[in-house]
Specification:
Pfam families: TRIM_CC. InterPro entries: E3_ubiq-ligase_TRIM/RNF, TRIM8/14/16/25/29/45/65_CC. By secondary structure, the protein is an all-alpha fold. The protein has a domain of 34 residues. 75% of the residues lie in helices and 0% in strands. The two termini are 37 Å apart.
């Protein structure tokens, strides 16, 4: 007591009571902060799961849409191929029919020419005059007009048009992919860290 007679003194019990209040207040602040952090943790965890679900849904939708697009292109390819084959068949059938007619006409002409050749070698005038009426060969040619063959190579243009279509699809796809890429890159989990707004908030955070 002599050593501290000029000092302000308090009893140990009173000091303990004061410090106990400070301790309880600090514990309350820690518990409050723990609750806040646990809430933030849960919100962030939910955001991560939601982000994963959204990404998976986007992947599935993209796969479905691209599959449909591939099927549509495949149908278009089949349609163009079938169109070409049908037109080829029609044109070839018409040409082959005419080929058959021309072949038959050539055989008839050769046969008649042979008959005329045989008739021309008969020396007996009476026999010549007797045979002539029985021949089916007219003395004046009645051949049909000549045929001019024009081959329209329109299938070359088809290949060019298909190539142009593919180029347009590729250019369109590049532009749209760039848009999609920008949208994907902007899909983020945004975490906002708030700084203490007041002096009291700053002291409160510092005490923790």
């Amino acid at each position: 007591m002599d050593e501290h007679k000029n000092h302000d003194t308090v009893s140990a019990a009173a000091e303990r009571t004061e410090k106990q209040k400070q301790l309880e207040e600090a514990q309350g602040n820690f518990q409050k902060r723990i609750q806040e952090r646990e809430k933030e943790l849960e919100e962030l965890r939910e955001a991560v799961e939601s982000h994963k679900r959204s990404a998976q849904a986007a992947v599935e939708d993209s796969e479905r849409i691209f599959t449909e697009l591939i099927c549509s292109i495949e149908r278009s390819r089949s349609e163009v191929t079938q169109l070409i084959r049908d037109q080829e068949k029609t044109a070839v059938n018409q040409a082959e029919e005419r080929l058959e007619q021309l072949g038959q006409e050539i055989e008839d002409l050769k046969r008649r020419d042979a008959e005329l050749e045989q008739l021309s070698h008969i020396d007996d005038h009476i026999h010549f005059l007797q045979i002539l009426p029985s021949l089916s060969v007219p003395l004046v040619s009645t051949c049909p007009p000549n045929i001019t063959v024009i081959s329209r190579l329109s299938f070359d243009d088809v290949g060019k048009f298909v190539s142009q279509m593919c180029e347009k699809i590729e250019n369109f796809s590049r532009v749209e992919i760039e848009k999609i890429s920008g949208r994907v890159k902007n899909s983020k989990i945004i975490i906002i860290i708030s700084e203490p707004k007041t002096h009291e908030d700053f002291l409160h955070c510092k005490s923790l």
